[in-house]
Amino acid sequence: MRPLRYSINVTLDGCCHHEAGLPPDEESMRFWTAEMERADALLFGRVTYEMMESAWRKPATGPWPDWMNEWEVPFAETIDRAKKYVVSSTLSEVDWNAELLRGDLGQAVQRLKQEPGEGLWVGGVTLPLALADLGLIDEYEFIVQPVLAGHGPTLLSGLRKRIQVELVDRHEFRSGAVAMRYRSTRVPA
């Protein structure tokens, strides 16, 4: 069974709004590119899907936009070509190499996990909370930013029960951010 990995940037005070941490730099974009490359498919809720598509979908005209730094292109190309699954009750169709997941969320994601491959990746805020509550996330990876935001959505706010994890990897960035990867130990409460 392929694992489901949840990765997100988070500030020291737990804010996980995408603009609350440090701006991306070359080192962090290399890290995120490698994360995307480890996944057979990406799993998004509607909000994250639309946000990522607006930023990282290659324009129909061909070249990447002028605002994009050269060191962002590998990430853009990786996420642009990745297989995506979108969980939404409001969208009737998706494109950008994506497919809507319909029906029971737990059963749909369990089916995806049972397919062969290296793993699935989920990002965002709302969908990962639902998946964590269902016990479907196998790894949690938090890139802790050296910032106190003082506002915004907080990481896994509203989680219904405690989840025990163990640290399996740690990486420090020159910016002061620290990536910590945890594996769920699935210990009953």
UniProtKB/TrEMBL annotation:
Protein's name according to its UniProt entry: Dihydrofolate reductase family protein
Gene3D superfamilies the record matches: Dihydrofolate Reductase, subunit A
UniProt xrefs under InterPro entries: DHFR-like_dom_sf (IPR024072), RibDG_C (IPR002734), Riboflavin_Biosynth_HTPR (IPR050765)
Location of the Bacterial bifunctional deaminase-reductase C-terminal domain: 6-176
